[in-house]
Every structure is written in structure tokens, then in C-alpha cells.
Amino acid sequence: MxxxxxxxxxxxxxxxxxxxxxxxxxxxxxxxxxxNADFHLIGDHxxxxxxxxxxxxFTGTESGVAxxxxxxxxxxxxxxxxxxxxxxxxxxxxxMCCLPAGETPSDxxxxxxxxxxxxxxxxxxxxxxxxxxxRATDHVLREYTTQRHRIDLDMAALHATEIRGRGFLIVxxxxxxxxxxxxxxxxxxxxxxxxxxxxxxxxGVATLVG
Length: 210
Fold this sequence. Notes:
Residues 1-23 are annotated as: Disordered. This is Uracil-DNA glycosylase-like domain-containing protein. One of its GO terms (molecular function) is 4 iron, 4 sulfur cluster binding. By secondary structure, this protein is an alpha/beta fold. The protein has one domain (34-195): 3-Layer(aba) Sandwich (Uracil-DNA Glycosylase, subunit E). It is built from six helices and eight strands, in the order E-E-H-H-E-E-E-H-E-H-H-E-E-H. The strands form two sheets. The protein has a six-stranded mixed sheet. The longest helix has 18 residues, at 107-124.
């Protein structure tokens, strides 16, 4: 049984490589949750999925609340919405740094932060990756599967499906602000189905799956 750390927020003490915010503003929204989790929820950046005011991913925005509702429905989260208690779920962003109001991350800043995200993902060593939205899903499919070249990045079609990766099972989640009809029910049902079976996979296998 792995026991990475008991720390809930920024368990590995990451320090962002740049700070472009004002002196009284939050520098970054670090990873948060159960560092021994089997499920890793992966968002884009704080201005999309939240956390600028709380320091906790998936808080304070419409998308964040929707994702938390899913986490609560399957038993991953409880407690306050601004600082939930998470079990078997870890949350982080591919771009953890905050930017000045109105700015969006550049390709260069995503690239600059990639090594930090990758190091944390491998340290958590979850079995199931849950990328939220097109940017995070594209990154996860490119970096952790051999299938990106043959997958159309249609998030409506990919939502709540299962994709085998290199030692991971990937379940993309459509951007919650674009959810229609039963999209919320679909991701809850998919996660419940995964939890109901033996989802654990062998880590560190050299063979590429898929």
C-alpha cells in the first residue's frame, strides 16, 4: 500500500517557476486532495476551473461546483465547497500558476509548467486520470497514451468514455459549462461503474497499451 504523504494541499512542496500576479494576489493553485488517491482529476488553469480565492482546485466557479457535485455523488468529497474533504481523489491543474486578470496562459507558459504537472502526476501514481475540458484532455491523451493521433478531440463524444493509456485508464470529462441533458449523470454512472469493479492496473509496465 502506498503512503505518499498526509498533506492535503501542495503535498510535494512545489514552487511555481514564475509569478506574474500582484503582491497581494495568489501566485498559484496547487494540487489538493488525497495524495494516495486512485483517481486524479485534472483541470486547465485557475481562471477556468477556480481556486484563485481559495487556493483549492475546482472551487469558486460554475465548473468547479459542477465537478464537486459529481465528486460528492460518488463519495469522493464532502464538507465545505471552498475546501472539501477528499478521499481517493486528487485534483490539480496542467497550468497551476495564476495570471493577471484578463490574461490567458500562453503556449510557452503551459510548456514551462508541464514538468511540474508531470512530476506530481507520477508521484500521485493514480490509476484513473480524469481530465476536464479540451485542453487538459488533449494534454493527457498526448502524454499518457499512444492514441492521440487517432482520437478526434470531440469532447461531447469523449465525455465519460474509457480510454486505455500507458498504465492509466483515462476518462475524459466535457467542460461542465457545456454539459447538456444527462452529461452529469453519465460521468457519475461511469465513475460508479469503475468503482464497482477491479480498476487497479499494474504500474511501470514498458508495454504500450492501445
